[in-house]
Protein: Transcriptional regulator
Organism: Wenzhouxiangella limi
Amino acid sequence: MDIKPIKSEADYRATLREIEGLMGSKADTPEGDRLDVLVTLVQAYEARHYPMDYPDPVEAIKFRMEQQGLTVDDLVPAIGRSNRVYEVLNGKRSLSVAMIRRLHRQFDIPADVLIREAEDKRNERVESA
């Protein structure tokens, strides 16, 4: 069977069914390769038709703090002095690129989520100009 683009919801559902049947396929086999290509097509279709909103960066930090039992003091190495951590957590200070890198590296918070804040603020400036 040929691989075709997913153009409709029916195509999408049929591709998901096929993926389900190929889930046990080994890598580097024709079936495994087919599975890989179909998953890529589904991801592209879902990104276009079911876009996901990333969580707010501050909420992501707070969530990670709750998950790992972190305190403000634990964030100091990534963000700066405790007053700066409070400013970030209260939305009074934006994350810098250096903070984003350290938060990602030290606490495994996805960088895309942390970057979103900077992109949103840049888009707000462009729209208001």
Remarks:
- Residues 9-49 form one domain.
- The mean pLDDT is 87.
- Residues 30-49 form the longest helix (20 residues).
